[in-house]
Amino acid sequence: MSEDSERLAQALIQFREAEGISERELAHRTGLSRATIRLHESDEGRLPLPFAARRFEEVLGLPPGSVPARERETTPLELPPDPGAAAG
């Protein structure tokens, strides 16, 4: 866990405790899944994707750009060969 992701995890947990809300309610407020909330509050947390970072900033009342985000991981999509393409 990076220092930035650890700070985010602590901020999310402290926010939930101060508000007296569950992971489910935080997910509702951010528009993110409970799994995403759980991930970013856990020891396995990593930096959020940019859209999630913005949602966290909004709910935590932080200025834009204050939650570091990771770049979207892109994996090339490999499709199986088109069986009709070889016919000729």
Q: Measure the end-to-end span.
A: 54 Å
Structural class: mainly alpha
Counted beta strands: 0
Largest sheet: none
- Stretches where pLDDT falls below 50 for ≥5 residues? none
User: How much β-strand is present in the residues?
Assistant: under 5%
Radius of gyration: 18 Å
Mean pLDDT equals: 88
Q: What's the helix count?
A: 4
Tell me roughly what share of residues is in helical segments.
Answer: 40-55%
Describe the fold and architecture.
With about 90 residues, the chain is mainly α. Helix content is about 50%, strand content about 0%. It is built from four helices and no strands. The chain is elongated and about 60 Å long. It starts with a helix and ends in a 28-residue tail after the last helix.
Write the layout of secondary structure elements.
Elements: H1 3-19, H2 23-30, H3 34-41, H4 50-60
Helix pairs in contact: 2-3
Task: Give a short summary of the structure.
With 88 residues, this protein is mainly alpha-helical. The protein contains four helices and no strands.
Identify the notable features of this structure and list them briefly:
elongated; 88 residues; single chain; mainly alpha
